Protein: Ubiquitin-fold modifier-conjugating enzyme 1
Amino acid sequence: MVDEATKRTLAAIPLLKTRAGPRDKDQWVGRLKEELVSLIKYVENNKKQDNDWFRLESNKEGTRWFGKCWYVHNLLKYEFDVEFDIPVTYPGTAPEIALPELDGKTAKMYRGGKICLTDHFKPLWARNVPKFGIAHAMALGLGPWLAVEIPDLVEKGIIVHKEKTSSE
Structure:
């Protein structure tokens, strides 16, 4: 079941057409352009809705992505480094998004801080190859993961807001 807000968000993210990964040289350049258009549109939409929650950039080849993501809980902003590599089998395989500083702090995470998307997101990705891209991974993967995990980690005292730790 997908709620209406998720449907609206998803509908506003451009779908991709090119089935190409990093090993596909010229086709990868085309796919990367589609990825950037989709990401830019998603970020623009988020800003319009006052829902800006991540920044991403990539290496020159578009195979390694990194940046920051954040989640606001109880009016406090929790910010994390985010990183992922584009798999060689992309877009057939979704990227494994990692939040390295949360490594080992929740059961819904694999070694290296890779967030668990196996049960919900990966089957959805598989049904939508090659239409889904990085923006979709952020919107349907990392975003919902943060919304579930960060409040839980805060309530359990596993993560503490930076201002609280510096004032103690």
